[in-house]
Amino acid sequence: MRVHRATLLQFVLPLLVLQLSACYRPQVVVGPDPPAVLAGAPAVAWPAVQGLRLHVFNTGTNRVSSLLVGSPAPWRPVPAFVIEHPGKGLVVFDCGLGPEIAREGGAALHPVTRLLFETDSPPGSDLPSQMRESSMLPADVSTVILSHLHFDHVGGADAFRRATFVVGLGEREAGTSRMNGFEPRHTSWIDDGAWRDIDFSRAAPYATFDHGVDLFGDGSITLIAGGGHTQGGLAALVNLPGGPVLLAGDLVVHFDWLESNDVQRIVGSPERAADVRNRVRRLAALAPTLVIIPGHDLAGLPSGRGDLVVHRSALEAGRPAAN
Ligand SMILES: [Zn+2]
């Protein structure tokens, strides 16, 4: 037994780290040119939906393990969002890190995920706890939109017992294993009937994107097909009264990602990831008032808007509580 353990430590683990670190070399993909005009939204200004309000929270921080990249990577925030909808009540977009991260730290992650990421979440920063602090009850959430099913986007999903869970078609199949950063224990309790899988394949083009689905049929939230980071990834364009906001999920991991052609190998389909990134860039150029909130970047959030409430945890985002 002792021999086996020594073999594992001396040979297998270094090989695994070497193989995983290969995943983090730069991978430059220029990708195809996106369309030059907007589809489905003829004017650059979208019709705003009165009564919509977006809350921005931060549930903790992640960074790529220095074991892999050789030098300390920046800590990135792990946001989660609540939309107050005039007809649908509370709608959540991504749930952030779960309370088990505050309790157990990185030990809560699958051993392979633990090799890839460091993660931190102060007690009480999971989304349901922060909602309760802000007088919003998790039981009142009607819809939870999950950009994808990685561990840092589904934590806290367990609290939304009355909700319909919305994902891109194919994402549920991909998310059944804890390998590759998925965290099925937060979603495995959800009955089949409580899922709504969005099939983008027949949906019309929207803005600069190849497919968009009007979630409630009222123009308030349009879901946009992703698919580069994980198979069924999606983003949401929210038509707030003060102007549209793109909740990008990990279609745009952070602004460095958006500005670079490096898709950083943390994608399932590099060509698709680059295609979607280019479409977001084109949209930003066509609609300068659009606010983009990436999956792991809270820089440049607007202030002083009644329809976009930035909570304290989001303002303080960017480094672990211990530092
Ligand atoms: Zn993520």
Helix content percent band: 10-25%
Termini Cα gap:
39 Å
Bound molecules: zinc ion
Q: How can the largest sheet be summarized?
A: 8 strands, mixed
- Low-confidence segments, given as residue ranges, are none
What's the helix count?
A: 10
Structural summary, described in words:
There is one protein chain. The protein has one domain: Metallo-beta-lactamase, Chain A (4-Layer Sandwich). The chain has ten helices and 13 strands. The strands form two sheets. Strands 1, 2, 3, 4, 5, 6, 7 and 13 form an eight-stranded mixed sheet that branches. The longest helix is centred in the N-terminal third of the chain and has 21 residues. The model has no long low-confidence stretch (mean pLDDT 88). The structure holds zinc ion. Zinc ion binds next to helix 6.
Looking at this protein, list some descriptive labels:
binds zinc ion; 323 residues; 10 helices; 13 strands; alpha/beta; globular; eight-stranded mixed β-sheet; five-stranded mixed β-sheet; single chain
Condensed summary:
With 323 residues, the chain is α/β, with parallel strands linked by helices. The chain is 24% helix and 22% strand.
Strand and helix layout:
Elements: H1 2-22, E1 53-64, H2 66-69, E2 76-85, E3 89-93, H3 99-104, H4 111-116, E4 117-120, H5 127-133, E5 141-145, H6 151-154, E6 164-168, H7 171-174, E7 195-198, E8 212-214, E9 221-225, E10 234-240, E11 243-247, H8 255-259, H9 270-286, E12 291-293, E13 308-310, H10 312-315
Parallel strand pairs: 1-13, 3-5, 5-6, 6-7, 11-12
Antiparallel strand pairs: 1-2, 1-4, 2-3, 8-9, 9-10, 10-11
This protein binds zinc ion (ZN).
